[in-house]
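lol forgot to send this yesterday, sorry. struct tokens for the thing we talked abt
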């Protein structure tokens, strides 16, 4: 294999990874994930997954439960440490190193990587003992070293963006699920990351609350926030995504614009997923015999975790503040905390 450094796989851009409409002319990729592998014991969860993301793109990842999609997302900011491969986000490169303890300089790179790519979890992960504004300023103050006044000003700006200025001093248990997820999005924005990572952000919500969260995400996509979203929300993928990745058994088997992957899938595994997902999709032959898929706006699946990497830490168990502004038992790279 051609390498760019000892042990590091060369990054190969797939022909389908064409820069989206909002990408500045000549912009270089902001995310390069190269040949990512992940094992949990004998379970080979990711099998050489690569991804290229340009600034201002929205990327969606589709796949069955157990396919590896959430594990891949968590490998991007080393909440799960890859078993092999490399991740580069905004020029911060980290190679997989499963067999050795990382040096201080490498742990610092992981800390910087997490600052560049912030996760929005399925289960919100808000601190129940802190107010909304307290949740927003916690990481900027303790991780980035901002003053409380500056962090509060920033937090209030992003609360306004998600439409929750009036909930500034409320506590999470007094909010609906949709409001809590919007607070989680505002918290991620307050860290001002280069990339937002969303791990099925609407799957834990009552269907009546999904729309308010998707509206915020669509606004972020249209204004050019760089986002990678694991989702089953087909309407969001259709309207907001620049590119869709379908993952099956730990491999990206189809990549392309939503009108191709969702409406005219080329790979039989993608077609099978879309047509058999609770029997809610309809596949028929279009012009020239090409398959055409008609999907509902939302596909709902009973969730089960594909592996330990699919589990989401709960704020109630939190005891670590990570550099990405999230707390608790999220896995550190090789067991090391990001702080030296």
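and heres what i got for the seq, position by position
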């Amino acid at each position: 294999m051609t390498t760019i450094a000892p042990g590091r796989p060369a990054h190969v851009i797939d022909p389908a990874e064409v820069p989206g409409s909002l990408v500045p002319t000549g912009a270089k990729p902001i995310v390069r994930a190269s040949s990512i592998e992940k094992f949990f014991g004998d379970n080979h969860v990711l099998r050489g997954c690569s991804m290229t993301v340009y600034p201002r793109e929205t990327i969606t990842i589709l796949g069955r439960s157990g396919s590896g999609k959430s594990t891949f997302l968590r490998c991007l900011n080393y909440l799960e440490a890859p078993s092999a491969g490399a991740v580069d986000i905004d020029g911060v490169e980290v190679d997989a190193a499963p067999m050795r303890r990382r040096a201080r300089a490498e742990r610092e790179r992981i800390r910087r990587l997490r600052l560049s790519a912030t996760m929005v979890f399925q289960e919100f992960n808000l601190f129940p003992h802190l107010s909304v504004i307290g949740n927003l300023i916690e990481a900027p103050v303790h991780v980035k070293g901002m003053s409380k006044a500056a962090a509060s000003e920033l937090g209030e700006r992003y609360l306004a963006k998600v439409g929750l200025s009036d909930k500034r001093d409320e506590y999470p248990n007094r909010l609906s699920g949709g409001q809590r997820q919007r607070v989680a999005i505002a918290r991620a924005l307050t860290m001002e990351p280069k990339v937002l990572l969303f791990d099925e952000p609407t799957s834990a919500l009552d269907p009546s609350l999904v729309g308010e969260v998707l509206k915020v995400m669509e606004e972020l996509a249209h204004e050019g926030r760089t986002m990678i979203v694991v989702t089953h929300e087909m309407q969001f993928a259709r309207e907001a995504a620049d590119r869709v990745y379908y993952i099956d058994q730990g491999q990206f088997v189809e990549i392309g614009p939503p009108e191709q992957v969702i409406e005219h899938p080329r790979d039989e595994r993608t077609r099978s997923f879309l047509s058999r997902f609770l029997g809610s999709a309809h596949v028929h032959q279009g012009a020239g015999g090409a398959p055409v898929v008609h999907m509902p706006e939302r596909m709902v699946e009973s969730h089960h975790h594909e592996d330990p990497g699919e589990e989401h830490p709960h704020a109630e168990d939190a005891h670590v503040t990570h550099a990405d502004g999230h707390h608790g038992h999220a896995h550190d790279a090789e067991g090391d905390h990001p702080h030296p």
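The mean pLDDT is 85. anyway ping me if u want another try
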